[in-house]
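Progress report, Aim 2. The chain analyzed during this reporting quarter is listed below.
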Amino acid sequence: MHDLRAIRDNPADFDQGLTRRGQEPAATRLLSLDADRRAAQTACQELQQRRNAASKEIGRVRREGGDAAALMAEVADFKDRLAAEEERERTLGAELDRWLAVLPNLPAADVPDGPDADANVEVRRVGTPPALTAPLEHFDLGERLRLMDFDAAAQMSGARFTVLRGPLARLERALASFMLDLHTSEHGYTEVAPPLMVRDQAMFGTGQLPKFAEDLFQTTSGHWLIPTAEVPLTNLAADRILDAEALPLRMTALTPCFRAEAGAAGKDTRGMIRQHQFWKVELVSITTPEQSAAEHERMTACAETVLKRLELPFRTIVLCTGDMGFSARKTYDIEVWLPGQNTYREISSCSNCGDFQARRMKARCRPRGTRDTTRFVHTLNGSGVAVGRALIAVLENYQQPDGSIAVPAALRPYMGGVTRIAADA
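Predicted structure tokens for the chain:
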């Protein structure tokens, strides 16, 4: 959500930010609605004052034995006019809120301009892709091991689901446990087990609603299945005034994530790259405005550490204005090397949302022990990392000539000492 006061003070800057994101300028329309709404508010206040004054005059006239009929008619007219202005104010306010709710966050000044992913900028590259002869993709590897079953999943659930068995199921669990242990024991995140279903307001707070409803799954009770643990973790700060000295708050969670993939027809139809249901370890930070830029770099480094410990080659890029998510003001994507595709693919996205989400969910902070004016916090979120895609990366980077998979050293304690996954495992 955007600050109307900031738009009033700098409409040209606001429109410039929208233009950088490929959006039409909106300041004129927003400020016109805002002016009309505030005029209706003023009219309501004036009518209420006049109504109160006329009511007092009625009492005086009656006490003096006079005829108050004309004044009573005037008060009745004020009542009708007041109701009309109040309804006008509500209508204008609702329309203003609808416009504000679908406008994306403005990009930070250092975000590169560009219309799409081709304008993203590589920041660093870590590790060397393995020299493999005719590497296979993860789905071929998994099926040859007889541990990855897409047909069984499709029979019971349809497309974009997978059944993992035996050592591959354990490998997925090992990856998730490894990530949680790393983030909680070394990176200072507190593990949280949040709800997997949330109400409309929680989805609105983090920016999924109203614009992206078609990408979500909704239950018959009206709850939404979370597309990422960012939603419940960030909403733990909703409608709260936090102690500024206690920030940043750092939280992590392992949850299944549910996405309709409404706009993904024809994309990654084979394998586990793009699923309706997948596991992810999420990182969320709640900070003061002064801390958020440094926290963004720190969070990205925490996600990168996962891949470094797994000895997976990756690169980190900063997204351009046309490729960022709705709520982000700056985003780093971490892309892991997939030999089977001979390319880097996203495995983590770390975003600084500034106060955009905080305004939507009324999350604020105040210095300890003071009565100072509260400020909106800054919220950040990142994958630390997507478990299914990490499984894909391990399969493809650690594939052996005989079709088996070597287990990364960092995962062996979580695999009961298993060092190799083979078809006879």
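The longest strand covers residues 277-287. Residues 117-421 form a domain with the BirA Bifunctional Protein; domain 2 fold (CATH 3.30.930.10). These observations will guide the mutagenesis work planned for the next reporting period.
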